[in-house]
Design a protein that fits this description.
The chain is of the alpha/beta class and 161 residues long. The chain is 22% helix and 24% strand.
Length: 161
């Protein structure tokens, strides 16, 4: 469903959102953040800058910037898609990081960034085959429910390819 044209711009085309290039998080110390996230996730760095680091996620990335300015996030979060949600749960437990209660797997990093862990196979978000291949993850599959949801939008794997 598309939102109706705004009253101030009748007849003018609006841009459509098609994805997220990156998520930026603030921390007090980039090196400590890389060490923390490295204990939970396997990753490579895309690059570094003065007080910044970029964790590669194929065609997307997480930008880590020094100088956290806000209080810990209570509800604001971003969903990080992984190949194995239970592996993250196991790492959090081993590191004595208590996830938030409930059906989701949310946790706070030491700087107050709330992260929700979502497993790739059960959601609509889909990486292009060539991106998965480049990431060494070409075997990732979707659940029948995720495929059904995608099919309902004309976006199931193999459609229009």
């Amino acid at each position: 469903m598309r939102a109706p044209a705004g009253k101030t711009d009748p007849g003018k085309r609006k841009a459509r959102m098609i994805g997220i290039n990156h998520v930026a998080i603030e921390v007090d110390d980039v090196e400590a953040a890389l060490e923390f996230y490295g204990r939970i996730f396997e990753f490579t760095l895309r690059g570094r800058g003065d007080g910044m680091a970029f964790i590669d996620m194929g065609d997307q990335f997480i930008a880590i910037e020094e100088k956290r300015t806000q209080t810990p996030d209570k509800h604001r979060h971003f969903g990080l898609v992984v190949d194995d949600r239970e592996a993250v749960r196991d790492r959090l437990k081993a590191l004595d990081i208590e996830p938030f209660p409930g059906n989701f797997l949310d946790f706070l990093d030491p700087w107050g960034n709330r992260i929700q862990i979502i497993e790739y196979k059960g959601i609509q978000f889909t990486k292009a085959r060539h991106v998965l291949r480049g990431m060494g993850m070409e075997g990732l599959e979707k659940t029948p429910d995720a495929i059904r949801q995608l099919k309902g939008k004309g976006m199931s794997p193999g459609e229009g390819a």
